[in-house]
Amino acid sequence: MDTTEGGALGMDRADPGHRERFAIPPADGGRYAETAYLAGNSLGLQPLTVREELLEELDDWARFGVEGHLDARRPWLPYHSLLTETAARLVGALPRETVMMNSLTVNLHLLMVSFYRPAGDRTRIVIEASAFPSDSYAVRSQARFHGLDPDATVVRLDSGEIPDFLAREGNTVALLLLGGVNYLTGELLDIPAITTAAHAAGAMVGWDLAHAAGNVPLRLHEWAPDFAAWCSYKYLNAGPGAVAGAFVHERHLGDAGLPRFEGWWSTEEATRFEMSPVSRPPSTVDAWQVSNPPILAMSPVRTSLAIFDEVGMETLRARSIRLTGYLESLLDEFVPAGVLTPRDPARRGCQLSLQVADADEVTKRLRAEHGVCADARRPDVVRLAPVPLYSSYHDCWRAATALKEVL
């Protein structure tokens, strides 16, 4: 493999991606005008069309006031439905199983109201040993809400321990809630196999797809977990704190026996303005909505999902494997650090995690001295994410050579 800068530029000419669609931050340091941005697993870059399309919503608000709910060029009353089909295709779900709403942890809580129902000996919640802290906080608080001791209820396991635990103690598990791609290591879990094993043990299954949606192909309807949720500000490039997504498998839709919190948007749209005191929930995942959607926050999500719909996840996944494999080869050549992420491309997304001393200081120097944006997870993990939509082979080359110098 050609590990020179010229080699990286040549690979970009042959396999360019879609960098021209995004605003690339300027570099604060180093000899390049643009940042080598490898932090899309924390916050994706802004699609260039977001500004114009968001201004259209602002213009309609100025022009129509309240009448924009029906008269805006994209009427606000059914606005969330503009995102439904593209989001469903992205995660491999049916439109009636998919909704964009709220934020990730809010969605997890709303879904756990329905699908975490401890009873008898079946009370435990299984999460990853290295679960994202928010997920840990959420499940522990759910245990407390049900009057249970979270220390005894929440079981933290490495991914390799899960099958044996389910076979041995699955009759005590009420809910398995795992990250589809682990935020720390970048490991892609075997979602269909783990889902099947957990269901065979009698547990409900939910997936946090924050680091999987827009990163790896998903087939939620086929894999049949009970529920899933994801954010849209990482690989989906919809902006900081952007509106999240939720999935409920169709076998649960219309089940009047499921406990569920309800609100203004949980009732049938056609009857909403009858102002009835009793909700009439639809037989879709829309029944899990609580509030009317924030239009100005949903506009960038709609813009971003349209890009994924146009380019296609299979195409992006193929480029991701090439791009991440190239970065891995450069790191092996240049950098004296251990890679925590699985080496098998089928077991990872586009993130590579390195174990280094003083990760915070390393990432600060990468940015200040070399114009390379990565992120740190304390105390000793640096994460690099070559995102196939906008990252380049030259970005990977810059990151690897900068790490060589800094380390």
Structure overview:
The protein has 407 residues and is of the alpha/beta class. It has two domains: 5-47 and 312-406, Aspartate Aminotransferase, domain 1 (Alpha-Beta Complex); 78-309, Type I PLP-dependent aspartate aminotransferase-like (Major domain) (Aspartate Aminotransferase, domain 2, 3-Layer(aba) Sandwich). 38% of the residues lie in helices and 12% in strands. It is built from 14 helices and 13 strands. It has a seven-stranded mixed β-sheet, with helices on both faces. A four-stranded antiparallel β-sheet has the order 9-10-13-12, covered by helices on one side. The protein has a two-stranded parallel sheet with strand order 1-11. Strand 6 (204-208), helix 10 and strand 7 (227-230) form a beta-alpha-beta unit. Helix 5 packs parallel to helix 6. The protein starts with a helix and ends with a helix.
Strand order of the largest sheet: 2-8-7-6-5-3-4
> What value does the Rg take, in angstroms?
22 Å
Helix fraction, binned, reads: 25-40%
End-to-end C-alpha gap = 23 Å
Number of helices: 14
The biggest sheet amounts to: 7 strands, mixed
Count of domain modules: 2
Please state the overall shape, judged from the principal axes of the Cα atoms.
globular
Strand content: 5-15%
User: Per CATH, what is the topology of the largest domain?
Assistant: Aspartate Aminotransferase, domain 2
- Give me the CATH architecture of the largest domain, please: 3-Layer(aba) Sandwich
Question: What is the quaternary state of this protein?
Answer: single chain
The number of strands is 13
> What is the mean pLDDT?
97
Order of helices and strands: HEHHHEHEHHEHEHEHEEHHEEHEEEH
Q: What is the class of the largest domain in the CATH system? A: Alpha Beta
- Low-confidence runs: none
Give the CATH superfamily of the largest domain: Type I PLP-dependent aspartate aminotransferase-like (Major domain)
Q: What structural class should be given to the helix and strand makeup?
A: alpha/beta
